[in-house]
Write a structure and sequence with these properties.
Low-confidence stretches: none
Shape: globular
Order of helices and strands: EEHHHEHHEHHEHHEEHEEEHEHEEEHEH
Bound molecules: D-gluconic acid
CATH topology: TIM Barrel
Strand content: 15-25%
CATH superfamily: Glycosidases
Largest sheet: 8 strands, parallel, barrel
Distance between the termini: 9 Å
CATH architecture: Alpha-Beta Barrel
Mean pLDDT: 94
Helix content: 40-55%
CATH class: Alpha Beta
């Protein structure tokens, strides 16, 4: 028999989104430019007005608050605040003040992302994050945010520091669409430094704000591989993508190679934000890694993105972070792209069960943000994937509250998953 599953007191229940993916009307960054190139984006979609959230944020937040959410993760678009080198747009600063006021009015604790993939065009022209000396421009942007927005409660510095270098400089899926391992390493290194810069700038001016990183922590499963060599390969990738990161946050140096030091990164995360969607394992042929695949337990279901659903991976992610990081954890993204809202409901429940299990085993998880509050621009996949608790009709900008949003709202209201709900979905805790 199932029992109600209670979450800790003051647990934050929210949804996440980013500036570029929802605001619309952004024409001054690298993504806008990239989308104009035929063949880069599925169906040749362009982001355009997106969800017009730039104009509708207040009514959107009202919807989320009416759905019993008590926190919200959103972002700031750098190219709005600093449209040209060393030039600040004060109207846009005013705009974001209104956004944060609206969050407050609707009792939504604010989580705000400084950098979520997009860079201003002028910064791109200078070589973007590829050039170490360009970090001073990122510092300038962070300084403006720190000075102007003391009202933000939780800052997320960089969204997924490994993804932009990987997708933009290796796999060519994101701007600038390059493929060079050397460029990847440089950008990755500079982005890690950018995280440190954002942390120090914000804390300097607002010591009370909580500032943390948001990262996907892909679990490169090893369980299918017994051989020494394969284990080494898998752990090499894990080192580059995950362990380096934990080491730098903990000690300012990398255990794999103590010559790699970034002292300025030591202790630069007041909390850890986990983004989790799926779990991967390496495929080998004649001992050589040639690709990755999803964890595929029997009866695996797939999302619209083609990702295998694997809730256990979220539990394992949390336990890994618990081991490596001494501080509170937030699930800053977890969600599904699907046309079947029932599937979204199951997905949410199954993943919340994983979170609950980790909490029961001692993990200090303090909040959960479903990705995404509303359907939005899914980067190279355009508008096709539907991640939202709220559906968007892109022709009319009409909002449609999905059943999953109501179910999630009920969980948030009661701060628990009721035994009845588990029964209904035939789930066992
Ligand atoms: C990312 C981003 C989001 C995505 C989401 C779904 O992880 O790529 O943080 O911008 O939209 O993850 O793919």
């Amino acid at each position: 028999m199932n029992k109600d599953l209670e979450f800790p007191e003051n647990f934050l229940w929210g949804a996440a989104q980013s500036a570029y993916q929802t605001e619309g009307h952004n024409y001054n960054n690298d993504w806008y430019k990239f989308e104009q190139i035929k063949g880069k984006i599925k169906n040749n979609d362009t982001c355009g007005a997106a969800c017009d959230h730039y104009n509708r944020f207040d009514s959107d937040f009202e919807l989320l608050s009416n759905l019993n959410q008590n926190a919200h993760r959103t972002g700031i678009e750098w190219s709005r605040i600093v449209p040209e080198e060393n030039e600040v747009n004060h109207d846009e600063i005013e705009h974001y003040h209104k956004v944060f006021e609206s969050l407050k009015k609707h009792n939504l604790t604010s989580f705000v992302t400084v950098h979520h993939f997009t860079i201003p065009l002028w910064f791109e022209k200078k070589g973007g994050f590829l050039k170490r000396k360009n970090l001073k421009h990122f510092e300038y942007y962070c300084d403006i945010l720190a000075k102007n927005f003391p009202e933000v409660e939780y800052w997320n510095t960089i969204n997924e520091p490994g993804v932009l270098p990987l997708m933009g400089y290796m796999s060519k899926d994101y701007p600038p669409g390059r493929s060079s391992f050397l460029a990847f390493l440089k950008v990755y290194n500079n982005i890690l430094r950018a995280h440190g810069i954002a942390y120090h700038k914000i804390k300097e001016k607002n010591p009370k704000s909580q500032v943390g990183i948001v990262k996907n922590v892909p679990y490169f499963y090893q369980k299918f591989y017994g051989k020494f060599w394969k284990k080494r390969v898998v752990s090499f990738f894990d080192n580059v993508y995950n362990q380096i990161f934990f080491d730098l946050l903990n000690n300012g140096r990398v255990s794999l190679n103590p010559l790699i030091r970034e002292k300025c990164l030591k202790g630069t995360s007041d909390f850890f934000g986990i983004n989790y969607y799926d779990a991967l394992y390496f495929k080998f042929k004649l001992g050589i890694p040639y690709g990755m695949d999803f964890m595929l337990p029997e009866d695996t279901r797939f999302t619209q993105m083609g990702w295998g659903i694997y809730p256990r991976g979220l539990y394992e992610n949390i336990m890994r972070v618990k081991k490596e990081f001494n501080g509170p954890i937030y699930i800053t993204e977890n969600g599904i792209a699907t046309l079947e809202d029932k599937e979204r409901q199951s997905f949410i429940l199954e993943h919340l069960l994983a979170v609950h299990r980790a909490i029961k085993e001692g993990a200090d998880v303090r909040g959960f943000f479903y990705w995404s509050s509303m359907d939005n621009w899914e980067w190279a996949e355009g508008f096709e994937p539907r991640f939202g608790l709220i559906g968007i009709d892109y022709e009319t900008q009409e909002r449609q509250i999905r059943e999953s949003a109501k179910m999630y709202g009920e969980i948030a209201k009661q701060n628990k998953i009721s035994a009845n709900l588990l029964e209904k979905f035939k789930l066992n805790a």
